[in-house]
Amino acid sequence: MKPKKAIITAANPRQRSLPLQTLIDREGLERTVLEVLIEDTRRAGIEEVAVVVMPGDEDLYRQSLRAGDEGIQFLPQLTPPGYAQALLSAEAFAGREPFLHLVGDHIYSGGGESARRLLDIAAAEDCAVSAVQATREHLLPRFGVVGGQPVRGGRSLYKVETVREKPTPTEAEQSLVVSGLRSGYYLCFFGMHVLTPSVFRIIRGLTEHAAGPVSLSAALDELARQEKYLALEVGSAHRYDVGVRYGLLNAQLAIALEGEDREEVLALLVGLLAQRQADAAAEGAAAK
Amino acid sequence: MTSRLLDIITSPEPAVRNQPLEAVCAGLPASELLAHCDELETFRRSHDNLYQRVRALFFLYAIHRFHLPPALPGSRALIPYEAYESLLGRRFEESIRLLLKTQAAEGPSPGLSSALAAAYRSLAFQTLADQVRRSVRSVAGNRWMFRTGHTADYPLRLRPELTSPDPATGLFPVLRETTPVRMDLSHSGWSDIFFLGMDFPEGARVLNISIDLTVRRPGAKPQPPVESYLRVIDEPVLRLTSVDLGATVDLHTIDEVFDFAKDYLGLLKAAVIAAGLVPSGMEGAARPLSDLFAPLLGSPHLGLELVSKVNDIPKGSRLAVSTNLLSCLIAVCMRATSQAKSLTGALTEEERRVVAARAILGEWLGGSGGGWQDSGGVWPGIKLIEGVAAGEGDPEFGISRGRLLPRHTVWTEADVSREARERLQNSLVLVHGGMAQDVGPVLEMVTEKYLLRSGAEWHGRQEAMRLFDEILATLRAGDIRGIGDRTHRNFHGPIQTIIPWAGNHYTDGLIERVRAEFGSHFHGFWMLGGMAGGGMGFLFDPDSHPRALDRLAEIMPALKRELEHAVPFAMEPVVYDFAINPNGTWAELKTGADALLPAAYYSFAVPPLVRKELRSLPPSKRAELARFSAACQHDPSLSGAVEQLFERLLPRAAEDGPAGNSLPRLLAELGFDTQQHEKIRADLKAGRIGLAQNRLPASTTLEDAPRPDILVPDPRRSAPGEEAIRAGTVAVVTLAGGVGTRWTRGAGVVKGLNPFHRMAGRHRSFIDVHLAKTRRTSRLFNTTLPHIFTTSYLTHTPTEQYLCRLQNAHPGPVLLSPGRAVGLRMVPMVRDLRYAWEESPQQLLDEQKQKVRESLHAALVAWALSAGEAADYTDNLPMQCLHPVGHWFEVPNLLRNGVLRRLLDEQPRLRYLMVHNVDTLGAAVDPAVLTAHIESGAAGTFEVIDRWVEDRGGGLAKVNGRLRLVEGLAMPDERAEFALSYYNSGTTWLDIDRFLALFKLDRYSLGNETAVAAAVRAVTARMPTYITLKDVKRRWGKGQEDIFPVAQFEKLWGDVTALPEFDCRFALVPRRRGQQLKEVAQLDGWVRDGSAAYVEGLCDW
Predict the structure, then answer these.
(1) What digits encode the pLDDT tens for the residues A114-153?
(2) Distant-in-sequence, close-in-space partners of B751: CB < 8 Å, separation ≥ 6
(3) B144·A177 Cβ contact <8 A
(4) In B611-648, which positions are buried (b, 16+ CB within 10 angstroms) versus exposed (e)?
């Protein structure tokens, strides 16, 4: 059965306002990052969405929504803090069904399509599936990474055997090399997963023994040991992390260049460059 | 049809594969040997299997080195210079092609075979080294470091626990790693050499124990011998500090990290690279290190400090101190960058394996090398380390039979009980005997013998494997006496069967004395590592153990004092206290007020800081000084730190370098000629003399000696010589003034006294061998040959003492001819250093070693400039600052010091002198050669031999029409030497009267000292002066050694042949008679090609 629910995490204390940042979407409409993500889930066929936020941020988030998005639930992050615990905060919402999970600080080009593919595979294979992308090793400090084997028959699917959070290349070479990938490339999380309810039980177990925050990667590593878990390589899609330096600007430009305002944005950029060059020439002439 | 040799190489059957080459080649004629060579050459070029190719190369080497030369009498095709040049440039394939082409065109010859042997051997070792390097790079976890070439791709991040200073103290946390060293209880026949483990994994096994250690003294307790510290600093530099070497450096750019030999911090640099902190792929990048620190530390304004500390353990301990220090440094860097999960405590097995692989990489980067068990200190306690067959998925699969990295199995108390461990600790006396050792040649010999499966050595290896199983069983049973019995048998049996030079006279003496004193309470000797004499163990009854500790601390220095002129010692012997370490490498995080470095660090880091304005110091330094000052008042681990600090701040009055005042006194005593020295200095500085000026003018006509001009002594024609010997007309002169610069790489021992080889059951020195030959000749001809040893200021007293001890053992007269001339070494001219390194053909080294050498050359040029070109070299022991002035002087000295006159008075019939070098072991008073000399009527007959590839340094040539010896230094160009068929053996027959006539003297005027001195001075003035560079060791710290090239001058004996009035001839003698032993690495070939047996056959013991 195709999952109908999605959980978006937006409770990272250092990035709590990121999903509320505004940009202009492909249609030229002013939207928050969160709204863009919710739109992606709707296009993929998701009917119910829960957003896990910092306790006390619920109203702020609720107010940011446009009319028509009232059905979204805002759930406070349970203690202790941590990515995996954030997901656990939405356990009751998810119930006993698989669900789509997105991170609140990413924006995707063709996000709806990627989410739909992920949901289709999860339904067809009846298991958890994470979207991954082949990523060069110097970016490993940013992502969770999976190791595994290609599934016979292709379709860019991999059977996940190991998951590590932000591994060093030393560790990646030892346990995360995937055949068929160029050397120095690893399957890094795309920030989009379809997960089974087992993940909640696993997170609870890990939380009991952990002194601090638990990463989702640790839980998914355990999930891979306990049940069938696949990774789907979304080669042509792009993600934009709005949490990094110039991340929002980069995401905005990427969306704008794909959308209706492409010409306008290009003209804007060319204008900026031309102006800069003219200023430099004028400065040079004045100096002479 | 495949030949039997190819069967041996390719057969899957061990019984066939393990046959020696000799099984096929012994006694074959040259034509059949050459046919085998053709097959092997075709095979090795057309097959991919690494070890089959390497074995074929070793077979080719051995056939050309040992089997073909005796089968090719009379052949003399010369070695083409281009082939030699390719050999030096490590273009081995090209060299082989050129040599084979010459062989095809001109026929085979011993000279060509010697060059082919050298090329095949070098290519075999290069192939093996390349494979190890490839394997090290392909170990999972190491590969990314070679791909990361740009700072934008840098993937490491420092752990957050280390990046923020403590708010209260301002100190950054310090990560401290401590690591034990390892000892190998089994020795295991060097089976931990990578090549062996990768070809013969089933035979590669060691029992490796991690130990804490201290040099024995009151109050000292064993502790992990190596430590490393890592912390963030608030300057964008990589600060590397070695506390024990007292060296620190701030590196600012990436390429500085790869400059290994620039300072004493090469090991730390290798660790930084091998740990991935600065990945290998970035070599050559001139970018600032802050480009890496920005992503690594989160700020381009911060930097890192890495500190190493070896706790009082001398170099050369055979306990793999440097490999474990490298591992310790790599581990601390890996922990700090999350490459090891555990920030503190022990490492996981997987992490230990990565550290071990990285340590191998680090050793390769630093141009050194060790065995695969050396990083054993990373693991805890007692472990069995075994080679593992390469399986599918291993990078070695299909290339070599074994994996690069072995398997470690840590033994629990179920394997070896706590009581057995304690009993071992209470029985074993671990020592450093003090000997300096270069184990490199030994490891090459072991590899070669293994690949050739030489009969006795291969059986020795099987025996060592059986003993290994017995050692495991006795340890499991807690039978320490049984262990001692096995390790003792191992040392005296298989180890010395495989490599006779693993043992030595000093070690034998120690064992003998311990056995005599402790009798049955001494359970056995245990050899550690590559050679005996450094790290060693003695097992005793536990009741005798305390006394044994005390006594060995007395026996070793006493024996050292007896032998120190003959055997190279690097340091005073020491006895250790040790304990088995149960943890392996271990880390702790020091935070807050505890975040200090070891006390010794501050003793040299603080003085430069206190001389600065306090406000000019970075905040963290100010905080650290404050905290250190507070800690000194109550922290017991810092007791004595203040005194050390004051010692550094206010050093005692400096002396005039290590030579102090004793050097001028010594020079005065030795009659040093200041005037001549200043003239040489002026000529050197002005460029009138120097390496380039040593050469004969380029316009010189230099041709090979025509064969008819050479005397060839006929063994069947010896009656006149025999009669002359019987009549008492002959004396032997051995030139023994040298200190074996090449033999011990400048260690400054008396070469003639070095007990280098066991003959007739005992280690014998060069002087022993020469006297034994004289005894035999005396006996055969029923006469008493006088034997004169010429000496120099360096060798005279020890030689005299040695001969006094031998007095009763040698019946004939033995005289000493003390040297009169001495020189004072000088700092070399940069011009000469560059000439030696850049314009003279040099053996190019393996890629990484060559990089290290080039870095060292740059450092030595800087040293020469800062010390002052042509300045007196005084920064060493006085004896190391002086130099003998060449063997020319040794013969005329016989005239000046009255030795010849006295001899002639006592033995008026004396007419001939056989003068030979101490290295020329085969030189005996041969009646056939003497007959040739007598019948030629010449004043002097100089012996020459057919040139082989290793015979560098001149030869016999027709120079502007006159046949004479030309020194290598004087060759107009490098190529010229290769046109010469004959090499100078250094042995000369002199007609005494005609030699005296050269000086315008006769027997009767020898008593006139003034006339003799004037005559000698007049002839000496006509001899050319050569400038040479010699390597001199300077020892410091705990067994540390630096080698400096220093300039000195020489006048050489062979140039006497250039004097027109001196009537000389040249006689071709067999190689075994004329070859010289210059380097320890020659010993193995010398034994295997029958030369040793030949020499032994000339001796009476």
Answers:
(1) 899 999 999 999 999 999 999 999 999 999 999 999 998 7
(2) B736, B738, B739, B740, B743, B744, B766, B795, B918, B919
(3) no
(4) eeeeeeeeebbebbbebbeebbeeeeebeebeebbeeb
Using CA atoms, how far apart are residues A271 and B1089, in angstroms rounded to an integer?
Answer: 84
Confidence of residue A202 (pLDDT cuts 50, 70, 90): very high
- Token pair of A71 as six digits: 């059905």
Average pLDDT, chain B: 89
Which of A136, A149, A168, A177 is the best substitution to test chain B (most B C-beta atoms within 10 A)?
A: A168
Q: Give pLDDT, residue A8.
A: 95
- Report percent pLDDT > 70 for chain B: 97
Contact list in B for residue A137 (CB cut-off 8 A) is 144, 147-148, 153, 155
Q: For chain B, how are helix, strand and coil distributed in percent, rounded to 5?
A: 50, 15, 35
pLDDT reported for residue B810: 80
Q: Are A169 and B276 inside 8 Å of each other by CB?
A: yes
Mean local confidence (pLDDT), B618-643 = 78
Q: What is the pLDDT of residue A231?
A: 96
Q: How many CB atoms lie within 10 A of CB B419?
A: 10
A218 to chain B, any CB pair closer than 8 A? The answer is no
In the predicted structure, residue B524 carries a pLDDT above the cut 70: yes
Q: What is the Cα–Cα distance from A70 to A35, expressed in whole angstroms? A: 12
* Helices vs. strands in chain B: H and E counts, helices first: 43, 30
A169/B contact by beta carbon, under 8 A: yes
Nearest to B141 among A138, A170, A184 (CB): A170
Q: Quick one: what percent of chain A has pLDDT higher than 70?
A: 98
Residue A246 has φ and ψ, to the nearest 5°, of 60, 15
CB contact under 8 A, B144 and A172: yes
Beta strands B730-735 and B787-790: pairing type? parallel
What is the reported pTM?
0.84
Nearest residue, CB atoms, B276 vs list A138, A139, A170: A170
Nearest to B337 among A137, A168, A184 (CB): A168
DSSP assignment letter at B802:
H
Chain A interface disruption, residue of B139, B146, B153, B337, most A CBs within 10 A:
B153
Residue of A nearest to B151 (CA): A138
Q: Is A275 on the interface with B (CB under 8 A)?
A: no
Tell if the CB–CB gap between B140 and A171 is shorter than 8 Å.
no
User: How do residues B312-323 score in pLDDT, each as one tens digit?
Assistant: 777 667 788 889
Q: Which of A139, A141, A184 shows the shortest C-beta gap to B144?
A: A184
First to last CA, chain A: 74
Interchain CB distance below 8 Å, A140 and B155: yes
Say if the Cβ atoms of A173 and B140 lie within 8 Å: yes
Cα separation, B945 vs B936, in Å, equals 18
* Residue B656: per-residue pLDDT: 46
**Which residues, in sequence order, are CB contacts of A128 under 8 Å at separation 6+?**
A98, A122, A193, A194, A195, A196, A198, A199, A220, A223, A227, A228, A229, A230
**pLDDT mean over B852-862:** 85
Q: Is residue A168 less than 8 Å (CB to CB) from chain B?
A: yes
Residues in B closer than 8 angstroms to A221, CB to CB, are none
pLDDT in tens, B1018-1063: 999 899 999 999 888 887 776 677 888 999 998 999 999 999 999 9
A169–B155 CB contact, under 8 Å: yes
Determine the distance in angstroms separating the CA of A177 from the nearest CA of chain B, rounded to an integer.
9
Tell me the CB-side half-sphere exposure of residue B244, using CA atoms within 13 A.
Answer: 22
B653-664 pLDDT, tens digit each: 444 445 555 888
Tokens 């005692």 identify what position? B652
Q: What is the Cα–Cα distance from B320 to B213, expressed in whole angstroms?
A: 12
